Amino acid sequence: MGWIGDRVGVALRKSSLPTEPDTPAPSDQGRDGGASVCRHCGTPCGAAAVRNGAHVFCCHGCKTVFDLLQQHGLGRFYDLSPTPGLRVTQPADPRLFAHLDDPAVRDRLVEFSDGRFHRVTLSIPTIHCVACVWLLENLFQLREGIGRSEVNFGRRELHVTYDAQRLRLSELVALLASLGYEPVFQLGDTAQRSSPAQSVRLWLQLGVAGFAFGNVMMLSFPSYLGLEPRDSPGIRWFLGLVSLGLSLPVLLYSAADYWRAAWQALRHRTVTLDLPIAAGLLALFGQSLWEIGTQTGEGYLDSLTGLVFFLLCGRWFQNKSYERLSFDADYQAFFPLSVTRCTEQGEEVVPVARLRVGDRLRLRHGELLPADARLVEGRAEMDYSFVTGESEPVRRRPGDLLYAGGQQIGGSIVVEVVKPVSQSYLSSLWARLARPAEEHRSFQTLTNRLSRWFVAGVALVALGSAWAWGVTSGPSMALKTFTAVLIVACPCALALSAPFALGTVQRWLARNQIFLKNSQVLERLARVTTIVFDKTGTLTTAGTDRLRWVGPALSPSEQTAVRVLAEQSTHPLARQLANSLHALADEARGSTAAGWPGSPGAGLEWFREHPGRGMEGRVQGREVWLGSAYWLRARGVSIPEACMRTAHAVHVALDGVYRGSFQLQRALRRGAEALTRRLAGRFELALLSGDQPRERALFQRLLGPGAWMAFRQSPEDKQEFVRRLQQGGRVVMMVGDGLNDAGALRQSDVGVAVVEDIGAFSPASDVILEARRVAELPELLALARNAVRVVYVCFGLSLLYNAVGLTLAVQGRLSPLVAAILMPLSSVTVVSTACALGLWVGKRSGLASAHGPEGWKP
Amino acid sequence: MSVIFLLIGLSLLVAGGFLAAFVWAVRSGQYEDTGTPALRVLAEEPSAPRSRTAPACPPQPNDRNRP
Question: What is the pTM (predicted TM-score) of this model?
Answer without folding.
Answer: 0.69
